[in-house]
């Protein structure tokens, strides 16, 4: 519980929280296809605490709407700063928690930030997990997602394939992209089952005009498999780790 009050303080102080950015690439050419913002907490005494640890805490203690709002604000601010640098233009994708959708007003907060930072809606994408999309506490998600999408927000299903895994919902939800969970990538290319699943998801997505990002790509053999399978976007340590904005900029300046 000390950690909860520390987190409250971190939200006030502002300088303990930061966003790191992991780039996404075309697996054959290496071209930039997007980037994901990942929240980090530099605790003044305990050092780096993973979002896997403090996000569930924020959710349990009513801090998620505020924490989520911090992420939206700061991702927009960073996107605006990068407009005037050598960084190539690309969508920044942020992770959205269920509680942000039913405790906060994501729609108007996002609209406010886009306006304030003079961004196009297409510059900030939203990642929602299957469990968030199907969480009944958020009410009927379809009209809310349609509102976001009509305003131009790109929407992605995160950790695709690990949730309810009923494919039917994809037909009704207005999403643009699925992020194929790294559980299906880890044992490529050896696992015949995973190879079949990945190939099938790519074919289904093609038929539905959905983009696919394969997550957790760590090896050359995985990269090559995904090139051969026709995947057009990958994310993972093979290409890049999540990096602070300044490091990403420096790396980009060094090897554009
Ligand atoms: O970056 P890392 O592997 O430590 O992230 C662990 C988990 O925390 C992942 O599931 C990731 O989606 C989630 N996460 C990271 N940043 C955010 C964020 O800004 N908001 C939400 N809701 N989840 C995040
Ligand atoms: O749940 P979500 O997909 O948002 O989580 C993203 C998390 O995955 C980030 O915390 C990031 O650190 C982690 N990640 C990114 N690339 C790789 C990778 O190649 N391998 C592994 N094991 N984790 C990764
Ligand atoms: Mn994600
Ligand atoms: Na994911």
TrEMBL record:
It comes from Halomonas cibimaris. The chain holds residues 351 to 606 of 633 of the full protein. This is Phosphodiesterase. Residues 1-256 form the EAL domain.
């Amino acid at each position: 519980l000390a950690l909860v009050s520390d987190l409250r303080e971190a939200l006030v102080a502002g300088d303990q929280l930061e966003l790191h950015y992991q780039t996404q690439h075309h697996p054959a050419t290496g071209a930039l296809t997007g980037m994901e913002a990942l929240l980090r907490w530099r605790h003044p005494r305990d050092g780096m605490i993973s979002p896997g640890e403090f996000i569930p805490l924020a959710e349990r203690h009513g801090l998620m709407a505020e924490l989520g709002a911090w992420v939206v604000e700061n991702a927009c601010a960073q996107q605006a700063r990068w407009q005037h640098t050598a960084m190539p233009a690309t969508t920044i994708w942020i992770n959205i928690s269920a509680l942000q959708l039913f405790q906060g007003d994501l729609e108007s907060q996002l609209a406010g930030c886009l306006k304030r930072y003079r961004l196009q809606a297409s510059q900030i994408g939203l990642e929602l997990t299957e469990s968030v999309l199907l969480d009944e506490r958020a009410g009927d998600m379809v009209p809310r997602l349609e509102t976001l999408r009509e305003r131009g927000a790109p929407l992605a299903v995160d950790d695709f394939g690990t949730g309810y895994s009923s494919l039917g919902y994809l037909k009704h939800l207005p999403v643009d992209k699925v992020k194929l969970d790294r559980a299906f990538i880890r044992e490529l290319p050896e696992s015949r089952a995973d190879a079949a699943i990945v190939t099938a998801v790519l074919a289904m997505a093609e038929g539905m005009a959905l983009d696919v990002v394969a997550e957790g790509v760590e090896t050359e053999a995985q990269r090559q498999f995904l090139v051969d399978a026709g995947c057009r976007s990958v994310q993972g340590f093979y290409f890049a780790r999540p990096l602070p904005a300044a490091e990403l900029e420096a790396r980009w300046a060094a090897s554009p």
